[in-house]
Write a structure and sequence with these properties.
Blueprint (H helix, E strand, L loop, with lengths): L5 E7 L4 E3 L8 E11 L7 E11 H10 L5 E15 L2 E15 L5 H8 L11
């Protein structure tokens, strides 16, 4: 038996990007979840990973409507890697395709500060 399942709980790095389903296509919503692991008592003893998440259909509609930057979210899904062409270059992106999204607390000063303190460009893409 084989199984690939990922669980991520963190805060949204920015507001979701929502595309409504038009002309028979499913709606799509993508967002990035930041997960910071801390150890010890020093502020320097932490590591943040960024996970790209994508949802489709009704779940995408709800994520686009209710999620916002800094909000907690729990995501269960599967990693998928896809390619796209940027000019003459083929690029790859790994995303967490969500089967389930649990909405957490809305933005609070502490959560928003935690997201704003992170330079998103320095976070490796893990999903």
């Amino acid at each position: 038996m084989q199984l690939q399942k990922t669980f991520v709980v963190g805060n949204l790095a920015r507001n979701p990007q929502y595309s409504p389903g038009l002309n028979g296509k499913q709606s799509r919503c993508s967002f990035r979840v930041l997960v910071t692991n801390r150890w010890g008592s020093s502020e320097d003893e932490k590591h943040t990973e960024g996970f790209n998440v994508v949802t489709f259909g009704t779940q995408a509609d709800n994520c686009g409507k209710y999620l916002e930057k800094g909000q907690e979210a729990g995501v269960e899904g599967e990693h998928r890697t896809r390619s796209y062409t940027d000019g003459n270059d083929v690029k790859y992106i790994t995303e967490l395709v969500a089967n389930r999204v649990q909405f957490g607390r809305k933005s609070q000063a502490e959560q928003t500060e935690a997201v704003e303190d992170v330079d998103e460009s320095s976070i490796p893409d893990m999903g």
